[in-house]
Amino acid sequence: MQLSVNFENTRGTDHGSGPVQVGWFLNTQKGGVIYDPPTRVRSADINRKHAKSASRCPAVINLESRYFAVKCPFDIHIGFTRDKDGKPVLRNLAGEASPIRASKLGQKLHITNEVEWRYPDVPTIQLELPYVFIADEPVYMSQVAPFMHYAKDPLPGTIFGGRFPINVWPRPLMWAFEWHDTTKPIKVSRGDPLFYATFETLPQDRSVVMSEAEVTPELTDYMELISGAVNYVNQTFSLFEAAEARRPEALLKPIKRKSGG
Asked: Structural domain of residue 135, as residue ranges?
């Protein structure tokens, strides 16, 4: 089997047929019950009665089938301010009504160092998440804004997404957000989509099947091998080939859940 981090390197080789198997798992089980499985995006309140309804359009169906929503695990209602020393800090605007303790929120959600912001006066905040995606063949995952979900109160900024090969670089995701209008709060409710994950496959017309993956000793060891590399190397993409050379041939083992009675 050839995994390859570059699609170009796989030309002329045999690719799998049928759907591409993508696995997901949580890299920590502590409080894991609050994290919902990624769900395929589907139109809500769809109208299928009319033959020309957009919900019956093959192009719409094909587009939606390629996106999986990752939902917010708890209510977030925060504001931006600076302390007496001018340091940027977050304010929990929910106060005593907040369902999450301030200490726990601070462990999960934080502002990045101001010198690392991409634009002056545009803070970047990060919500740490335990979601990891894995595949045993060349698959690139892109993390994008949930553009097919309507928000009554739009967020005051933009999602900071990314694209990387999950077959050689499975890593915990985070929700990164650039806060362009800090006079407005960030409010996200539990169950709202934080972002979409979409997957590039070979050939491109193959569908994606998502399943929860078993955290095997081999997968744990491989994750340990690549974890924390960003703390030591500026361009982690340069490590993809080195990681691929040390990757076991198979890491994805879907969990078989018992069916309900």
From this structure: 7-245
